[in-house]
Each structure stands twice: as structure tokens, then as C-alpha cells.
Amino acid sequence: MKPIKCVVTFFLFTLFWFPSLAQVTTDPSVPNAAEKVKIIYDASKGTTGLANCNCDVYIHIGAVTEGPNSTTWSIVPFQWGTADPNAKMIKVEGEANIYTFELTPNDFFDNPNDLTIYRLGAVFRNAAGTLEGKTSSNGDFFIDLAQGFTVNITDPATNEISLEVGESYTFKAETSATSDISFELDGTEVAEAQSVNSLSYQFSATEAGTFTLTAKAVLGDETDSEAVTINVFTESEQAPLPQGTQLGINYISDTEVILALQAPGKRIAHVIGDFNDWKVLPDYQMKRTPDGEIFWLKISGLTPQQEYIFQYLVDASIRIGDPYADKISDPFLDQEIIDQGRYPGLKPYPSGKTEFQASFLQTAQTPYAWKNVNYEKVDSEELVIYELLVRDFDDRRTYKAVIERLDYLEDLGVNAIQLMPIGEFEGNLSWGYNPSFFFAPDKFYGTKNDLKQLIDEAHGRGIMVILDMVLNHAFGQNPFVRLYNDGDYGAPTEDNPWLNRVAKHPFNVGYDFNHESPYTAAFVDSVNNYWLTEYKFDGFRFDLSKGFTQVNTGDNVGLWSQYDPSRIKIWKGIYDRIKANHPDAYVILEHLSANDEEKELADYGMMFWGNMNFDFREMAKGENKDFGWAYHGNRGWNDPNLVAYQESHDEERVMWESLNFGKTSPVNLRQLENAVNRNQLLTAFYFSVPGPKMLWQFGEFGYDEELNNDRLGIKPTRWEYLNDPQRIRLFKLYQEMIKLKKSHEAFNEPEKTTLNLSGGVKSITLEHPDMDVVIHGNFGLGTAGNVPLSFPSTGTWYNYFTGEELTITSTTVNFNLRASEFLLFTSEPLPKPEDGILQEDFVTSIPDEIIPEGQFNIYPNPTTGKLTVELPEGMNAANYRIIDMSGRVFVSGQSQDIRQKLEFDLGNIQNGIYIFEAFDTRRVLHQRFIKR
């Protein structure tokens, strides 16, 4: 059917506007681009932002030239928020809310290239633009324009209609000019009129069948026609749902299935598919339960293990796949998957036989043979989560490619993977937050058994797998959207059982689920249970969990974030039902709301994302920030349920911040060596804050591709960074901090945590019966000299990265700390980091430089008193110091520009091992010597 008279948009989807709502009408009803048209706007309908405004109303209008279905305004003559007299509408006398505007589209717009104007886009406003009139789904109005003489069937507004025997319907055809109009039913004329602009015809459904009604118009030598399909059916047979039948596809034998579709309020449903050559047949009309809720049909005679593609045809006009299907057939995307060999044996979409997304069914499937079913889940506070996007983690972009990288993740030490959404989403290359089918893994990444193998192999390595679950919204291809919506992919209508017509909160994308609806609640529970059971996921990170509310906060972000008792009730219910069947499942919310709400839910058992990206990016640039909000205790929470993070998929990269915006003096953080040191410092402190941790993929080697240059676009992997010695230093630090966290309870649930994070020199103290931990670090860019650093007790402490002992008699010890230098002490001796890892890999602010032999000498060694140091050429004005193994400074100073040889008399210091250090803005040198 040709585009109907008035169409609205919401986000990227075209929605059909039904004339009966009459927010915007035109005179004539079928306007022509070359002729005058009057636009009539009723401000009391739609969003009603201008209703009874007692103000001047202006039209914001645009020409659409890219095609008859485009929603892009190509030519926009008026500026928003101005009292342009040319945009002012005429108020109809005696009407409070009716306004008109007249134009001849081809003459009205500045169109030097003579582009075809297919449609008009319109929004209405007051002069300042502070009040708006838009569609009821908060979208733009669109008015289709005829290009020459045209006839349109304007009622109904779709090209297919279904009726039951005994019903009747009045069809209406309208033309763009006075002409002779007729209706033909299956080729037989049933109505006609001469020299008119419209014609109506009442069709009575007396028998079942499919009929074609065609409107024809003649104007001199010009003719045009348009047809609509009429499907007439007998009333659906009523029958109770067979016992044990669930919504979706029920496999009852190797040759039989029962299909069950919930569609309250719909009248008729058929199953069409490969098994009936996609024909609408009486034998495939679904039965309906007596309450009118569910349609169902038993299909027999199927070939075992053969795949069939099928759809539901609802009310003879809506074609949808099964919302519970685990494999989807797509008319737009599957050919690319087939061409790239991404899914072996994928059956092509049945093009030419149907349209829109369909679903697969297959009896007698061979179940996946799980190998690792007895693994032990780690406690939530011990989680070290690695968030990854299958699309960007490996250039092959498959589940199998991730499997091949599991050894790397195991070597890194993480004990959990968090997969960004992998459920069937719209498009092939996506972050996955635009879901369409909630039970089907997206085929672009591979088969469902590939996904199961990934989870199975991860479990075999002691790595949990958490799924990023998107249940705030659905996109336009979703069957629940399409069952009750405007047009093919439009906004949900008010009678939609699952979804809101307009989102109740800011930042929504797609269409907002109504989480107070019992339909949505049941659906959410079934989705959660399915993935935990069928795929053995270990838990969920719920996207946009703050959106699970019916409290309408509009665009008010502050109000949306406030304590919401109804949202708390919803989440406690979801959590309880997850735990009832899967008591050890992890539940993590991306809530980012008021602390009192998060505390109540955290104390109930849920974990929460804690976004510390801003603070860490600022510190990565050389600024000073107190990041104490990364600790659950500072939020008043009872349990360590805060998953604080430096980075996630949503935030700009910390290393990118250092290399592009880091301070350059006195230490240049834009040089990779110094940026690595800075990021080591941040990471050591980050992992020292108790609670579960999360890192975004490749953060462990300092991924530095900008996020927001193409936010959702494919990013390069940069696996080659692991060949860079500087990047390896950061990777090793991650390994060591993860190992400490996984091995020692002090990093997870200490009895006492003391954070001193406000100053330039920061410290964290963790006290636990098994072991105490202290970390001190210099977040300034200059040397911090003779800084008093605190310890919780006197006695012997151990430098983790060197294994060296420090015996202290006072709980405060003075140290010198260079820029980005940090020291980690434990009260118990621990195994040193693995062989081949140097102290310098972690704790120096400036990396070692390879000095040619003979250019850096300390002699005699051992010494009884006199010590000579020769510095290399070019190391002028170097700072130096002599320290003992506890860090106490005995000698310090700065070499002169003309002196490269330093001499010291050490006769008065006691015998032992000492370190000589020298450093300038480019490098650091150090060497041990013995005093006898």
C-alpha cells in the first residue's frame, strides 16, 4: 500500500498515524506536492504541550527529499525558538486549540536542485520553543505528498484487514483531485462515483476467504489505483491450553510441537511457515483459550531434526516471530552472516514468501554435553570481573574466538567474564543494547552451542560468566512491540500489555517496558530463569535498572534518581524470584541512583555498579581526587556489594586521558612510560579498596583508543600492545593485584578499613586477623620528601614487590616518594612476584634506561666508608639519594651540571645493604651496595 496520509516517528522508527486520532489533518486529504495544502493542527491531542496555551503557535516544518519512507528533514526554512511571522499559524475563530497553515510544498521550500519532496515533517511550538506539540509518542508528524494524480485508500490505514464472518467494514478512498472513483472486489465493480474527491464502500463478510478490494480513479488520461487485502475468518475455536504447555515452542515429541502465543485482545492468529508453504490455511488457525489470552496450535508430522522457519499471523495483518524462540530468521541481516561463513548451515530467510522477522523450530535436537558442572562459584566480594564485547574483543568477532582467548584471561587472573549483551539485537554490529528477541543468542557471533561451549570452557578454568541483561526496553522488531503498536515498527499503543507508549524516565532508548504490568513481570522472570538454566550463566548485570519504574519523571534526571519505593519493590521481587531457583546467582544493577535507594537494595543482597571513571580519569591527568566513594563503607552499606570500576564500556579510557591530556611538568604524563606509571598507581590503589572489581577489556595493558570519536563503532583490538615492554609493566601489575585480591581476605572483607585519600600522598590500610595490608602512594607529580607514612602496628613489615623486611618501632615512618611511586606492605611475608618481574616494573615513577656499560658505576662495592658514583653523560642536575632497605634516607642532594662523579663518606652509617638512586625527568637509576 502507498504511504498513508499522516505518519509519525519515534527515534529511528517510522510509526503510522491513524486518521481517527486526528492530531494533524490536511485539506485536501490526499495533498499534492505541487498544489496548495492546508495543515490543520489540534493542540488538544498528542503531547498536548500547546493545549489551551492562549499563545501564538508556530509550525516548525521540513521537506523530506530522501524517499517516501524517510524521516530526515532535508530542507528546514525556520529557526527554532524565534517569532518568525512566516511560521505563525492561523488560529481558527471560536476554537481554543485548532490552528492552520497553508503552503504549496514545491513553491514553499528553497529547493535549487529541484529535489522531489516526498513528505512534510512538522512539530508545533510557541515562539520561544519552550512549549511543544508532538505526537502522542513524542515524535514528529509526517504528511505524505502525492507526486501527480493519486488515489489512496485512507480507511483502513493499512494494506490488510481481517474480519470475522458476520462483520462489516466501510472502506474509504480519496484522491488528490476531483475524478471518477470506483471500487472493485476481486475484479468486479461494487461501487462508483463521478467527479468526486472520495468514495466509500461497505463490505459485508458473509463467508470465509481472502478478497482483494481495489480503488481506481480516472482523471482524463491519468489513472491510479490502490488495493487492500481483506481476510475473512471464522471465529477462533475456544479450547483450554494443554496441561504443561508454556508460552512459545513446546516440543512434545520428535514430530510434534505445540505453539503458544500470548496476545490478549486479538481475535485471530494463524501459524504460517515452511510446513504449509507460508499459506494462510484453516488447519493452521490457532485455537484460543476461553479467557482470550493465549492462542495455541498443535502441529504434527514434522521431520525429526529438520529446521522449520515460521511466523504467527495475528489478525491477518501482523507477522511476528515467536517471542520465546531461541533462533531468529532475519530478512535483512542473515545473508551477510551466510556470506561471511559466520554460522555454518544457516538456512536462508524465505524471501518472497513473507516479510519481517521469523523464528526457527527444530524437533529432536541433540543437547549440548556440558563438561564442567561441578565448579565452585566465588563469593561476590571476591569477584574480579572482565567486561568484554564479543564484537571487539577479537577481530574474528565470534564466541569461538573468545574461547581461544580464555587462556589469556586465566593468566591475567580474572575469575569472571561479563559479556555485553548477546541476545538477538537489531543489526549485526552492535553493543547489543537494542534487543529484539530475548531468548535467542545473536547469530552473528555463532551458534547457541558455541555460546554454551564458551561458558563451559570458562567454568573449567574457574571463571564465572555473567550476562549483561537488557530488560528496560525493547526495540521495534520485538513481537511484543509489534503486536500492539503504530504501524510496522512504531511506538506501542496504549493497550500494549507489556510496554509503555511513552517512556517514563530519561535516557530511555527503544520502547520502555512497564515493569508494574503482570505481563512484563512474568516475562522478565522467564527470561532470567531461561539464561541461568539453559546456558548456565552465573548471574546478570542488569542494564539501566533505574528505568524499572512507572513513576513518570519525564526528562528530569534528578527526580528520576531519587528514592523510589515502587522501583525498590519491583527489584526486590525480581531478585527474590531469581534467588528462588538460582540461590547462588550474582545480581548486579546498573542503577546509579540516590544512595539511600542503592543502600536498601545492596543490604538486601544486590550488587551495584559504582562509576568512578571521572575521578580516575582526572587522576590519570595528574589531578588530585578523593575516590573514597569507591568503598561501600563510605556509602554506609552493610556489605561489600559495590562493583566500583575505573572503566566500563560506557566511559572514556583512563590511559587515553593520560596520553592526551596528562600534565607535562614536572613529569610528562603524555609520555607512555610515565603514563604507565600513573596507571599502575591508580590500579594498585583501585584493587586495594575492598569489594568486587571490574575492568573493561584491554584496560590491563592501557587501551588508549578514544571511545567517543565513534562511540558505538568497531574499535581495534590492539593485542600487539602485549609486545610493548611498557604495556607489559601495567599488565604485570594487574596480575599481581588480582592475585593478592584472590588469595587474601584482607582485600575483600577486612575487619577494619582506613582510607586516607584526600591528600597528594594517599594511603589505604586493611586490617584482618590473617594479615594487615598498607599501601602508600604519591599522586603528586613532584617528589614527596620525608613524608610520614602510617602503619597500624609496629614490628616487621614486608614490601610485597621486593620481599624485603622493614622493622619499625613507631607507627609512623618517614619516606621519600617520587611521582607515581607506591609501596605495598603486608604484615606477613608473602611469596615474591613471579621470577622475571622486577621491583622497577611496579614502583618507579620513571622507567629504567639501559645505560651503556661503564657509564654508571658505583665503587668500591662493598665499601668500608668511601663511595664513588659515576653518572652517565647527559644526566645533569640529577636528584640522588642513599636509602636503606626500609626506605630511610641517609644522603640526598642534586648533582651539579658540570659534575658527573659523586663522592660520599659513609663511615658513620651502620653496616648493611643500601640503595643508591639517581633520577632526572627522563630516567631513574639505582644500584645496591654493601657497607661493611
Structural account:
By secondary structure, the chain is α+β, with helices and mostly antiparallel strands. The protein has five domains: 24-144, Sandwich (Immunoglobulin-like); 151-233, Sandwich (Immunoglobulin-like); 248-363, Immunoglobulin-like (Sandwich), CATH 2.60.40; 380-469 and 511-734, Glycosidases (TIM Barrel), CATH 3.20.20; 857-931, Immunoglobulin-like. Helices cover 16% and strands 31% of the residues. The strands form eleven sheets. Strands 26-27-28-31-32-33-34-35 form an eight-stranded parallel β-barrel. Strands 1, 2, 5, 8, 9 and 10 form a six-stranded antiparallel beta sheet that branches. Strands 11, 12, 13, 14, 15 and 16 form a six-stranded mixed beta sheet that branches. Helix 12 (613-620) links the parallel strand 33 (607-611) and strand 34 (642-645). The longest helix is centred in the last third of the chain and has 19 residues, at 725-743. The chain is elongated, with a radius of gyration of 35 Å. The model is unreliable at 1-21 and 843-850 (pLDDT under 50).
Name a few traits of the molecule.
932 residues; alpha+beta; Immunoglobulin-like; eight-stranded parallel barrel; six-stranded antiparallel β-sheet; 31% strand; elongated
